[in-house]
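Students often ask why we bother encoding 3D structure as a string. The short answer is that it lets us treat folding as translation between two languages. Here is a chain of 582 residues written in the first language.
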Amino acid sequence: MSTFRYSGNSFYVNDERIQILSGAIHYFRVVPEYWEDRLLKLKACGLNTVETYVPWNLHEPTKGQFHFDGIANLVRFVELAGQLGLHVIVRPSPYICAEWEFGGLPSWLLADSDMRLRCYHKPFLDHVDDYYDVLLPMLKPLLCTQGGPIIAMQIENEYGSYGNDKKYLNYLKDAMIRRGMDVLLFTSDGAEDAMLQGGMVDGVLATVNFGSRAAESFDKLREYQPDAPFMCMEYWNGWFDHWREEHHTRSAADAANVLDDMLRLGASVNFYMFHGGTNFGFWNGANGHTEDSYEPTVTSYDYDSPLSENGEPTDKFFAIRDVIAKYVPLQPLELPAPVPKKAYGKVALTETALLSANLDRISTAIHTAYPEPMEKLGQDYGFIQYDTFISGPRPKDELFIQDLRDRALVFLDGKLAGTLDRCEPDTKIEFEVPAEGLRISVLVENMGRVNYGPYMKDRKGITEGVRFGRQFLSEWTTYPLPLNDLSALAYTPDIQQGVPAFFRGSFTVDQLADTFISLEGWTKGVVFINGFNLGRHWNIGPQKTLYVPGPILKTGDNEIVILELYGTNEPAVTFVDQPELG
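And here it is in the second language, the structure alphabet:
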């Protein structure tokens, strides 16, 4: 057993002074087979600590049903870090941001129309307590006070950027202490007056987050906390990407220089990120800084970090190690053997299953008077289709979807009439209704709930209603499409284009290796390999390839399924051995 504490301007493990040199690796963005590889590389870079968030929505996807296996095996990740001689910082706040879906909050919270988030609202806190009653007892044996590697835990995340409810923050602090979390507790906020005033908690260490101007940020922290060590809990040495923009990069020299500034001041630091990983499945979040803005994050969480998305050391890795070596004696660099990569070549997808012909196979119809959002229907992620009939004749008018979240393909009698997107408010769909009427189908994609800022109450689907002109349309049949089980799809050898369809093919693997799928010629959709949801593709960029970790493949035949919403130049993909991010 040991203690981690601070006295004056220094941290101590027991009575030995320590400078925390940490890096963020999110276990939930890396397949478990590669956790050891990434942790060994972190240690080889000269770091002594690993930090991770804990996403509530991954671990309690349905109220009262908990998941801690596979990629969600937090305990195994922490134990492994400890076995490798690393300290661990855990950030199990109800909210984590992290460019993760809904900032880690479970979507089922939004089924309650009266729910208030991240504040002293008893229904919200009751759910937090239920979650902590399961999570925190699992972490208790892993605390340093119990002989484990966890030295510190966060009580909330950048709360000063959201609110100033100190009663709420103190409730979280006490909730952890009551459940035996007797390690150092901390907060992290931007180095600004309002953020520190809103996010700090009495008796809890305050840390700051920034990407540059270290001395200025620490000077601001000192104004509020004069007698404690400096720590940058998130050193943003890279950045993440949204769809529709360029891939973000930062030079290794610039990132290393800012690190040098911090270490020269005697500060501790946590690299956010040291290894970004991947937003597999539908786990990406989105930014929405204003009521009308919406920026979904891409599938890759490469973050231009010291380890690439597939775990390879970058120039930034070596530049950072050189800086650390100026302050800490390092052993000669020893890295694990490189993870093999392979270009498996071109694979034809020879069968299709039209979404419209398979709705009843992969969904159960729900009938409601008006469209309901996903959360009200018990759905979390994926797609949802709404069908209704409009009588005719009617003159040409506009179809309005009020509060669309997030992107809708509109079909009239099965033919695509257009796409509406909350990011493109000027797009219009207008049509006449013939005497015999029209069948209207609206396929809505949840592109990821907002994970940061004041507009996080981001319900998905059609959240208000659909109008033709001034008239709201009623009597809807709805098909939830979370796409978590595609085994019932009925494929045909006919390749059909221009409407949402699943394309299927197979390829043979003789040697398991990492690879990347080039989706040149495809438009937009989701990719599955052997039933594993790799994530979204979209030709709008910047991401051009999807990372395929070797452990999701198998020796022999492998299945690839692509949900393509619009069409492809050729029903084939190419497996390459290098990513293309922008």
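Translate back mentally: The chain is about 20% helix and 30% strand. Keep this in mind for the problem set.
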